[in-house]
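Suppose a classmate hands you a notebook page containing two proteins, each written out with its sequence and a corresponding row of structure tokens. How would you begin to make sense of it? This section walks through that situation. The first entry is reproduced here exactly as it would appear on such a page.
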Amino acid sequence: MDHIDTNGSSITLNELFERYIRTKKRLKQNVKENYLLMYNKHIKADYIGNMQIKTISKMDILNIYDTMSESGLSNGSIHIMHNNILFPTLQLAVDNNWIRKNSAKDCLKEYPYDPLIKREALTLKEQNKFTEFLSSDKVYAKYFPIVSLILETALRRGEALGLTWDNVDLKSGVLRIEHQLHYYSVSGKYCFKAGSLKTNHANRVIPLSKEALTLLQNIKRNEYFNSINSGIEIDGYKNFVFLNSRKNNVIIPRACLKFDSSHLHASLCGIFGSNSGYIARYAPFILPKAQTNCDIHLAESNF
């Protein structure tokens, strides 16, 4: 006899997820917020969210993944939903004898995903075309400085958005990276939140190339007064380098900022791997933008 707790098995998936996410005390806040956003968007309002966990079948899980796939989500996003949200949520019920088995087990077979799959980096020609477009376009020109700095330093997007003048030492020619900004929905409203870096090794000092140093000198000459007088403060951080056109907030990460720095600053990825924290340590000392991708896949157009 398996001693199933009938009271526990009567709670809904939404109630179970609330209990599960409360147990994740060691999750970084931004990761937890992303999980909540993903769950609320794809499961909470769906029929399965209000189902009692004892009635959820494997077909219900497959239907969720099928709906996510048809809405345009990648197999990688579906794997995040499965591995980090749905499967461990239901496993909590199994471990507490509320249900006999985890209905999400073996539900990923139709959604193959290889995190090590080769991804083509921008060629030098493509990279130049991208930055030329940004510099000349009326709408996206405001992103040219931050994209240019990412190209020169291999900063992650959140690290670049969170950069403050306190992190910039133009005299010594270095950046000190010790936090990042995240832009996500909180109670239905998008806002910036400061957080720790992706890994412990990501805290670092980045020596600036000549181009990066000149870029930051020009930005400071034009924007420093606006920055220190903007009144913007996010979780204790202020004097941000990259402001929006109204100078009343950090620049919003629109489509042209939705990239991994390893896809752009690809010259170093082929040598040092995909962790841009390591890449940035050597950025100024290596021939810039000789393209490979983050899986050491050489771009033939550069030879």
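The notebook's second entry, a different protein, reads as follows.
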Amino acid sequence: MHFTFGSPYFLLLLLLLPCFLWCKQYTKPFFFSRLSWVSKQSALLSWEPWLKMLLFTLMVFALAKPFVYDAKNNHHKKGRDLILALDASGSMAQSGFDAKHRMQNKFEINLALASDFIKKRHDDNMGVVIFGTFAYTASPLTYDLSSLDTLLQMTNVGIAGESTAIGDALMQALRTLSYGEAKQKAIILLTDGYHNAGSTSPKTATQKAKALGVKIYTIGIGKKSDYDVALLQTIAKESGAKSYAATSAEALADIYKEIDALEPSSIRSENYLNQRLLILFPLGVVFLLLLLWALWLRRSEQ
């Protein structure tokens, strides 16, 4: 792990620290008949300027966006641009897909397995598309896998409508992939239903993916009578990928393991990987010190 600042130029504000000790402040004049009645105290010996300096320093650190990151392979990574296109239509609310956890629905089980899959794809630039009646990008391509997983867990059944727009899902995934720079790009499409919504046909989306060299791995979950097996096999075949059928949670887990063995390709990564911002730490200390200062002032006035 390494430490740095996201906006280091804010640290120049620390050059103002001497002003807390030597810059003149506006003060109301008082008159004394004898100078001996006035105590002489240097600002260096008073604790209040030092406290103000500490508070100022902590706030400047917060503005500078401190964070820690993993710098391993931060120049060149092996992997591909990869999009998970997940069906969140109403049929994904069916339970009983997992023999061990019969109360969990298909979408919840898929989220857990997808989360585990994401954590293992350290070398990929990944994104997530959620689809139902319409499709939207839940997360753009990113190496920040922890944030990607957090966004994924915020989705639920029906968030994109009750129907199944497979064509729109593929088109949205292709638009999301267009921002990536990897030579090899892939989509993992998971659904449990028939294409019955949207403005784009799966055939049109598949042809565009083929023209762009994007492979589409398809996964049908549940009984084969519940989803369009022929369509998923055609999409995968036309794009040069493979189609899978998962009749149980165990089978779906095995499929994710097989896809996890995708051949990596060279890609240029971001400068910082797996960032964790530390802004709350200096701000928390500032809040605590201000609270203690306010309590001390109130007590001294009594």
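A careful reader of the second entry would note: The first strand starts at residue 2 and ends at 5.
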